[in-house]
Amino acid sequence: MKGRDSIVEIPPCFAVPNIPQQVEGMLSCGDAYPAVGAEKQSAIPPASRTGWYLSLKAVIDWTAALILLVLASPLLILAALAVKLTSRGPVLYRQVRLGKGARPFVMHKIRTMAHDCEKDSGARWSTAGDPRVTLVGRFLRKTHIDELPQLWNVLRGEMSLVGPRPERPEFVHKLEQVLPRYRDRLGIRPGLSGLAQVQLPPDSDLDSVRRKLAHDLFYIDRMSFWLDLRVLFTTALNLMGLPYSITRKLLLIPGGEFVEHGYAKDLAKAPDGNLAVPAGNGAEEKDETPAKPVPDFQAA
Description:
It is a single chain. 37% of the residues lie in helices and 10% in strands. By secondary structure, it is an alpha+beta fold. The chain has one domain (7-40, 49-270). A two-stranded antiparallel sheet has the order 1-2. A two-stranded antiparallel ribbon has the order 3-4. Strand 5, helix 4 (169-178) and strand 6 form a beta-alpha-beta unit. The chain is globular and about 55 Å long.
């Protein structure tokens, strides 16, 4: 990123596995799109009716992240040693993700895959039994220890403890053309955990992304201290071995068909499936630019 008006180039060939065939072959991969500060970003709506809680949430996030980072430091050191002694490459994996307002930031994780594994394949989602994941990496992923360095991103104000999962810009550019309101996820800071993360498996195809989007939008619309607390408790109990399928029922976490039906109902309000979004000047308007073709996700 070279500045507020920089352009991010999408690699000429990037593959995402298991995307349905109906979205293949309809958009070239070589497009460029505006990065930070581009005029299009002003169309991202802020969370409504929760302004007071967003300020409180930022204080809670920073305080909790500092405490958790101190407590987790011995575990992070052990994980770093295990990665360094068992595979070639750096301990930390840094990857650009899009945060609030589509601002790119560098997200930190403990490396769980072979070093430089996307050099030949390009950006792609991880899949079940992914051969790129190392033996130590499988354990770190299962226990979510690899995500702990993101507490630093929370301290920096780039992430929250609870919110939509931050996505890579290569994928956002294409998914927002396939899924209505996908860009609305960028109205708040992304989360270390979230309503979608505690109920649904990692993204593997377009339908799984659509289901997560429904949960993300539900969270943004109904964000509250009580909902955040339940999500955090669910996350903590899962780390201790209690399955999400049990904890979400015990804590009455909203999800499933109820949430997905709400997303479908919202889309039904507009004939073309696109809702009017508040513009930067406060007036409501709809993007009148010609619709782009459906993105080309090629199965790997």
